[in-house]
Design brief:
It is built from three helices and 16 strands. It has 237 residues and is mostly beta strands.
Length: 237
């Protein structure tokens, strides 16, 4: 139910953040007995961790395509969901990459089901409008769109494992920027390094520095540290 809820390594508010889960993102809750106020969950990509119960909702109609007219994907930094079509109070602020389902669209505005069980209204600008079970199709020159999307996070606060305009990491930015451009990229850096096509780096014979002229916009660069330099500790776009 939160704009972006944290997924923790253990059932402890002080535990390491494994990832973030966007508003209305489906998760599977396990039967594991855990600390009061926490539940173990499995994300759609198989990542397992712990979330606060206050961040969870059992109202599944909000993620049911069969009840919807359209699937909406937020493609801008953030969007507001209001209680009424013209005026009203703020029900939720949702971040780039959030998926919503609308049961009505008209005059540039959509009515969406919320995990709280309510309905809210969101303007169509900054949204990708799809059929209920549709998926975003990659476009030609997708690298340019990917980098343009990533640059919308410029000067955002650094947040380890974050992926919103309120706090983001490079892996999080890459994951969300890819998603809204029709590319499935894992949310964790350790998995991202095994995605796509590897580009072998060459070194200048005189300086031994990496020759950067082979790099293209949208390439993901991973940095390791001796003695195990194959394990990424940082990345860049």
């Amino acid at each position: 139910r939160s704009t972006a809820a944290d997924l923790y390594e253990t059932a402890d508010i002080k535990a390491r953040r494994l990832a973030q889960v966007l508003y209305n993102e489906p998760v599977e809750v396990t039967d594991l007995q855990t600390t009061y106020g926490f539940r173990q969950v499995i994300l759609q990509d198989g990542l397992k961790g712990f979330m606060r119960e206050n961040d969870l909702s059992t109202f599944c109609d909000a993620v049911e395509p069969a009840l919807a007219l359209n699937k909406l994907v937020v493609a801008t930094g953030s969007k507001r969901i209001m209680s009424h079509a013209k005026t009203g109070t703020l029900l939720a602020e949702v971040m780039m990459g959030t998926v919503l389902f609308a049961d009505y669209r008209g005059d540039g505005i959509s009515r969406v089901l919320l995990p709280s069980g309510e309905s809210g209204w969101i303007s169509d600008d900054g949204l990708i409008i799809l059929p209920p079970t549709g998926e975003i199709e990659p476009v030609a020159n997708g690298a340019r769109y990917f980098t343009t999307t990533a640059l919308s996070f410029l000067n955002v606060t650094l947040l380890n494992r974050g992926m919103t305009v309120y706090g983001a990491s490079i892996p999080g930015i890459a994951h969300i920027s890819a998603a809204v451009n029709g590319v499935a990229l894992p949310r964790l850096m350790a998995d991202q390094i095994d995605s796509g096509t590897a580009v072998p780096l060459t070194h200048d014979p005189d300086t031994q520095l990496v020759e950067t002229d082979i790099l293209q916009p949208g390439d993901l660069l991973f940095f390791g540290q001796a003695p195990d330099s194959a394990v990424p500790i940082k990345m860049a776009i």
